[in-house]
Amino acid sequence: KGCNLIKWLPNSMAIDPMDSLCDAFYDKLVELDMFLLSHTGQEHSLDDADYTVQEYGNPLRFRNALEKGCKIIMAHCASEGSDEDLDAMDTRKPVINSCDLFIRMMREDKYKHLLYGDISAITAFKRVDNLVKVIQCSDIHDRLIYGSDYPVPAINATVWYGRLVSNGLITQAQATLLREIYKFNPLLADFVGKRIMRYTDTDGNVHRFSDKIFQQFPLLCGYNYEKNKVEKKNE
Prior knowledge:
The structure is a single chain. The two termini are 25 Å apart. α7 (172-184) runs antiparallel to α8. The protein has helices at 10-13, 23-32, 63-67, 98-106, 128-136, 161-166, 172-184, 186-196, 217-220, 225-234, and strands at 5-8, 35-39, 71-75, 82-84, 95-97, 115-118, 144-145, 199-200, 206-207. A five-stranded parallel beta sheet has the order 1-2-3-6-7. The protein has a two-stranded antiparallel ribbon with strand order 4-5. The protein is of the alpha/beta class and 235 residues long. The protein is built from ten helices and nine strands. It is 34% helix and 13% strand.
């Protein structure tokens, strides 16, 4: 019962995750044991209004929240755009692929029970190159969460099955079937597409999204597996 998650679009809402003004908000999220689901990477909802601050989507800007113990879900795995590498010691920070920054943070042990990502919108045509990266990162799949980013999957202009075919993620026959499913239900097509896609790397290893990614509902609803195990053991 109640709310277990709140969503931000920092780029469009003019929220700088590094700003100390956010500290009290982070503290309250920790107190209530809630997730912050935040857009990461580039965002385009308010481009026409000339209101977007793209640097606020930099995954590294969430380090302060994580250090406070805040549980963060980085939407889309920061799979579009590039950001300054704020971790670099250089005075002039290099600009790095945003998804690479996300993967770097996901692989830091100290964030293992705090930092998550979702795979919503990751099949959009602008994100496919980073989708190829993420599907190969099986070491972080246990902390990825399925999402659709509705209504984006229902906007035909963003769904390029041919791009998935050309990147070796689905076959032409699968693309044909997905187009038929899409006509009936775009959300179902998004789900099926992410379940069936496979990627074969240069060494011949076949990669897929882990089943667990599609089974994270208990996590989002606050179900604690470890606590439940202990309670059952003590019964």
